[in-house]
Amino acid sequence: MLFATDGFVGASPELLVARSGDLVRSHPMAGTAPRSSDPSTDARLAANLLASAKDQVEHRYTIDMVHDTLLPWCSYLDEEADPSIVAMANVQHLATRVEGRLSSPPASVVELVRALHPTPAVNGAPREEALALIDRYEAVDRGRYGGPVGWVDAAGNGAWAVGIRSAELDGSRARLFAGVGVVADSDPAAELAETRAKFQALLGALLRP
Q1: What whole-number distance in Å separates Cα of residue 71 and Cα of residue 64?
Q2: Is residue 13 helix, strand or coil?
């Protein structure tokens, strides 16, 4: 989703939630690998991501939370049996589609956004404990980074993304953020490399001649 609102701009690959009538969809992402210009290397990186126990654990935290949060609003809810690869220009992600039918009367997409945000992919889990740790140790103000961005109509339909691959613009200045999900088996050097790869999407757009 492309977005630009009050100086907050970006191109998020991650659908937080969308509602159309009584149909609801989400496409959460967690677990990341770099891309390669060599097709065989790129395929190997994708296969390694799908086989990574560490990334599967990281992914499962988010999928379970999204599914369990939406379920009380739904008469039916299903998710893909296994995650798939969603490839961006610089990175590729594990992603799982979650789709269902809302109970009557269907909740507004804004209610669903309020229930889902923040997901473990941008906040950690359990939610309250993770928020307390972020507040204590992160030492920076994220601003609107990672927050929900989207639209809603008068009937409560709409689509909202997670505000990643984003920048806050202030005149000629741009403030960028990128981050990773840290779990028990995370390797600090690999997580730093992943953060740098995520930065390239916006850095390339801002610094390209």
Answers
A1: 10
A2: coil
26 phi/psi in degrees, rounded to 5: -145, 150
* Token pair in block for residue 161: 């993304």
| Structure tokens that stand for 98 in this block | 């979650």
Q: How far apart are CA 83 and CA 97, in angstroms?
A: 8
* pLDDT tens sequence across 101-149: 999 999 999 999 999 999 999 999 899 999 999 999 888 889 999 999 9
Q: Within 13 Å and on the Cβ side, how many CA atoms surround 85?
A: 20
- Let me know how long the chain is: 209
Q: What are phi and psi of 54, to 5 degrees?
A: -60, -45
What global pTM score does this model have? Answer: 0.92
Whether residue 29 contacts residue 13, with contact meaning beta carbons closer than 8 Å, is answered with yes
At 6, list the tokens: 């009050």
Residues 126 and 82: their CA atoms lie apart, in Å, by 23
Distances (CA, A) of 166 to 2, 17, 143, 145: 10, 18, 11, 7
Tell me which DSSP letter residue 138 carries.
-
